[in-house]
Specification:
Length: 480
């Protein structure tokens, strides 16, 4: 026992060392100034470098005109918002609408239901695993949590279509999902325990799946009570933007002047787009000029254990069971960046995933290491590169947003990016952020690219057999 105590004393934090640390701290004037600023204003405000901010003006050589800023509130639906923001841009410009927003809650309902079904199917697939096995713990961590990837979005759209926000508006539990998901997850884990207990008593698999199907009736009830039932059919009305008249090349200046001088009734005379009793799948196919299956997830994960120019699949990551697990193509940074620039230059926004907490100013709207100088504030360098940040879990993807612009320098290379967020217009500058190119390179791990903007070598990877990864192996994480 004495030997153990003596050994542990060598591990202890020595009080004399603490006094030495304090003396060194107080002897440096910079530490005292930094402490005053950080304690009074917070770390990020104290670390903000005005020179860094001024080096990132909010103008962009390529900029896409988007609709009103959206707000995911207190929910982990960023991946849905970012995906729908890319699609609504295409809808607005295809149909010449002044603004438009899809219902995020509609997909949120179906995602909760599908994740619940997939969780219980994964429980059946691992029915003989002990509950403390790594794979079961991964499956059981958040059965129907909010987070997701682009491919989860695509799976939902393929199966359930889309609806405008007016057809299925927000609810208290979509805007703040914690309580809804807490009790849904608790019930799902109870169902898992019941299925495993029945299996231990010899119940055959076909009967277990019948029990699971009965359990899903409770899941549907919880979702419907929390969010309301989604529409099977709805009426759609939209008005074409008046700007269409300005682009009418058949008219002349005299006609335009006479139209301007005509008596005004106050009635909205814009052309209407109307549809009655349309289904969500019909709406998607008729009004959305994008096939969600024509987009590919590119990753830039420069880890030796995840070689570039390979296709990867992560086990147990599906939300819609029959749609399959999430797949990614890992490419070098130059390929990654070029695909992003080419797609924006062609007039299409980009869904992307990143670590939004690193070197970011939520209120001011900056993503940039030269603006958030925590290295200067704390007097220490932060030296992890992208590979180390991912391998050690320091900077995994945690948030999805939309790229809607890029500024190209004299050399034709990007030096800053325009970012549309889903945190409301009171964050950033009217809801938009600016990211430096260095920040993009370091903290953006996923982009969703149309196949037409992939180079031939990358496109050919889509036909290769994917390398299968376990769900805990670092590559990318769900965005929330």
């Amino acid at each position: 026992m004495t030997d153990t105590i003596d050994a542990n004393e060598h591990k202890a934090l020595d009080p004399q060392l603490i006094r030495h640390y304090a003396e060194e701290f107080n002897a440096d004037r910079a530490n005292l100034v930094a402490a005053n600023a950080a304690v009074s204003s917070g770390v990020l405000a104290a670390a903000t470098d005005y020179k860094g901010a001024r080096s990132l003006p909010r103008d962009f050589s390529i900029e896409l005109k988007q609709g009103s800023i959206t707000n995911q509130r207190r929910s982990g639906r960023c991946w849905m918002f970012a995906a729908l923001n890319t699609l609504r841009y295409e809808v607005m410009h295809r149909w010449n609408l002044d603004d438009f927003e899809f219902s995020e809650t509609y997909l949120f309902f179906w995602d909760a239901l599908e994740k619940s079904n997939t969780y219980l199917e994964n429980v059946l697939a691992t029915i003989d695993e002990p509950t403390d096995s790594r794979i079961f713990q991964e499956i059981n961590y958040g059965p129907a949590d909010d987070g997701g990837w682009w491919q989860m979005f695509a799976a939902l759209v393929n199966k359930y279509g889309l609806v405008p926000k007016s057809a299925y508006p927000e609810s208290a539990n979509s805007k703040d999902s914690d309580a809804f998901k807490q009790y849904l997850n608790s019930k799902l884990r109870e169902f898992a325990a019941d299925l495993r207990d029945r299996h231990a008593k010899g119940t055959p698999m076909e009967q277990l799946r019948a029990v699971k199907n009965d359990d899903m009736a409770t899941v549907y009830r919880i979702c419907a009570i929390s969010l309301g039932e989604p529409p099977e059919r709805f009426d759609f009305l939209a008005r074409v933007d008046d700007d269409a008249k300005k682009d009418d090349k058949n008219g002349d200046a005299k006609d335009a002047k006479e139209a301007d001088n005509a008596p005004k009734s106050g009635k909205d005379e814009r052309k209407q787009i109307r549809d009655f009793g349309i289904t969500p799948v019909e709406f998607y196919r008729k009004y959305v000029p994008v096939d969600v299956n024509d987009l590919v997830t590119l990753c830039n994960v420069p880890m030796a254990s995840r070689p570039f120019n390979k296709r990867y699949r992560i086990r147990f990551t599906a939300n819609v069971a029959e749609a399959g697990d999430m797949e990614f193509v890992n490419v070098p940074l130059d390929v990654f960046r070029k695909a992003a620039v080419d797609q924006i230059a062609a007039g299409h926004p980009i869904w992307f995933a990143c670590d939004c907490m690193q070197f970011s100013l939520r209120g001011a709207g900056y993503f940039d290491r030269d603006t958030v100088r925590v290295d200067q504030l704390f007097g220490t360098d932060f030296t992890f590169d992208k590979a180390q940040g991912l391998e050690y879990g320091d900077s995994p993807s945690n948030h999805a947003m939309t790229l809607t612009g890029v500024n190209l320098g004299e050399d034709g290379k990007p030096n800053r990016w325009k970012v549309e967020n889903s945190w409301g217009k009171d964050n950033g500058e009217d809801g938009y952020y600016v990211a430096s190119d260095a920040w993009f390179d370091r903290y953006v791990t996923e982009i969703i690219i149309r196949k037409e903007y992939l180079d031939e070598a990358t496109r050919s990877l889509l036909a290769t057999e994917p390398v299968e990864l376990e769900p805990w192996e670092p590559l990318t994480k769900r965005s929330r």
